[in-house]
Amino acid sequence: MIEPLIKLCGNQSETDIEKGAFSQATHLGFIFVKSAGRYVLPEKVGKWIKRIRPEQKLVGVFVNPTVDEIDEVLRFVPLDVIQLHGNETVSELLKIKETFPMPVWKAIHHQQDGLSMMRLFSGVAEGFIIDSKVKGAHGGTGVTFDWQAIPQYKEEANKQNVSCLMAGGVSPENIRELMAHQPEGVDISSGIETDGRKDFHKIQLITKEVTGHAYKYAKS
Q: What is the pLDDT of residue 133?
């Protein structure tokens, strides 16, 4: 059975990381975008990680970053994946990949040319996050997109032999509906929060549904 990817994003405290570390998540995400509501200081994240030592892979989320901005984060946080959530070009991705020896994921907003954007980054990005397109926002909106499109994104990701996670408004209330489309993975932020903090009960509800569905699908 292929283990589903579960990324818990937007962690803002040591307690958030602890909750994720004790879950079945595969990735923990941190927002290093100063204008974002869930922005965290790299120095703080570095201290929390040293204390908790989570086994999950660490993902740094950036929007149109410079090489220096990524380098500054890596001085404190041992990232495993760089996730780009802005309007980065193929050449900018290549420059980042040349500088930092780790996988780079590219966020694609679901829209008419979503698949074309994926194809544009073929052979460059090691993974994709499919997110809702909301005017004036790069992500973390809590808004879903039309999940009927998931099979097309999955097919393109399979052709490229890369990861593909679904984001945008995923919650305990709709996770079963999402899993019916058999995504490879999910990327959740607001859907696992209560009053702006990670909620362990919600994390458990989501991870149980995702892993349970993957097991059921593998058996069928």
A: 54
